[in-house]
Specification:
Elements (H helix, E strand, L loop, with lengths): L2 H6 L1 E8 L2 H13 L4 E4 L13 E2 L9 E2 H14 L3 E3 L3 E5 L5 E5 L3 E10 L3 E3 L5 H5 L5 E2 L2 H4 L7 E5 L3 H11 L4 E6 L8 H8 L4 E5 L1 E7 L6 E6 L5 E4 L3 E4 L3 E3 L30 E3 L11 H22 L3
Parallel strand pairs: 1-2, 1-8, 2-5, 8-19, 10-17, 11-12, 11-17, 12-13
Antiparallel strand pairs: 3-4, 6-7, 7-8, 9-18, 14-15, 15-16
Helix pairs in contact: 2-3, 2-8, 6-7
């Protein structure tokens, strides 16, 4: 190894990979415990909340707050206690030994005694232009987060699995009418979830239907859908459009090192943030496929920092 490469290796006590509610909360706890955390924010500093306009369900914000401003608050609080927040993407890891190695932007090597993973997950989208343009202006990937804004209105939701069925049922309790666009002629959801949808009188299931375009200039004003068997088009007069076709956890770089389920969510010892590698802890949406809320992510970030602190004490890291 050349002298230059040696100089590029940096050792830290606690490394946090990814930002968002989980990462920043972990940073706050780690910094206050004198763990000198270093955080690499990843491609989307602040995570999914940075593409969320209004957050009304996070405690402590009685008047609500927009997502980017909320994440700025989280970052300021983490930095106030001494977290070293850096822009950069962890592109490779090596968890072979007791000291964990990671590489940032394919070049800078860092070793760490403890690693907290908070890389989150990304919603899967349909990939049409109008969906991207109106994201946050009537287009959402989280009914629990945003359904309240469409109380008494007509909305559409895309998806056929358990999550889509659950979110459609949730919306049906708030909205006047819910159109559910199912690409095939049947659900992929479990029977109990399918039955809930079919027994909700204000949910209309449109089988064999796909989205052609979301209508509206500055906000959702309707949806143009088509029957993929007959090519017949229909226009739905809705003000909200929800995409529920799944999420993908941002965990690809940990494949081969950390145990994960078939989709890629990291597995932890129940009731903890501990992964199968000692000293590596998982928090937030990278390990949570059930709740996926900012407040639950923050809670697991706290758990990860506390677990990391106990681990560092056990190994006598200074």
């Amino acid at each position: 190894m050349s002298e230059k490469n040696k100089q590029e290796i940096e050792h830290v006590k606690c490394l946090i990979i990814g930002s968002g509610p989980a990462g920043y909360t972990a940073a706050i706890y780690a910094a206050r415990a004198d763990m000198s955390p270093v955080m690499y924010q990843g491609l989307q500093p602040g995570g999914q909340l940075t593409i969320t306009n209004d957050v009304e369900n996070y405690p402590g914000y009685p008047d609500g707050i927009n997502g980017p401003a909320m994440m700025q608050d989280f970052q300021k609080q983490a930095e106030r206690f001494g977290t070293d927040v850096r822009f950069g993407l962890v592109t490779k890891v090596d968890f072979t030994g007791p000291v964990h190695k990671v590489w940032v932007d394919d070049k800078k090597e860092i070793t760490a005694d403890a690693v907290i993973i908070s890389t989150g997950a990304a919603a899967k989208w349909l990939g049409i232009e109008s969906e991207e343009r109106l994201n946050g202006f009537g287009v959402s990937a989280c009914a629990v987060c945003d359904g309240f804004f469409y109380k008494g209105q007509d909305v559409a939701i895309v998806g056929a699995g358990d999550t889509a069925a659950e979110e459609a049922t949730y919306l049906s309790k708030l909205c006047n009418k819910v159109y559910m666009l199912v690409r095939r002629d049947e659900f992929r959801a479990s029977k109990i979830m399918t039955d809930r949808v079919l027994n909700s009188p204000n949910i209309e299931v449109l089988y064999n239907h796909e989205t052609k375009e979301i209508l509206g200039k500055d906000a959702v004003e309707g949806v143009l859908a088509y029957n993929n068997k007959t090519n017949e088009e229909i226009k739905l007069d809705v003000t909200g459009f929800f995409v529920a076709i799944g999420h993908k956890p941002n965990t690809d770089i940990f494949k081969g090192w950390l145990e994960m389920d078939e989709v890629g969510y990291l597995k932890v010892i129940p009731g903890t943030s501990k992964t199968n590698i000692p000293g590596v802890f998982a928090s937030g949406d990278a390990a949570d496929k059930v709740y996926r809320q900012a407040v639950t992510a923050a809670g697991t970030g706290c758990m990860a920092a506390l677990d990391a602190e106990r681990y560092l004490t056990e190994i006598g890291a200074h």
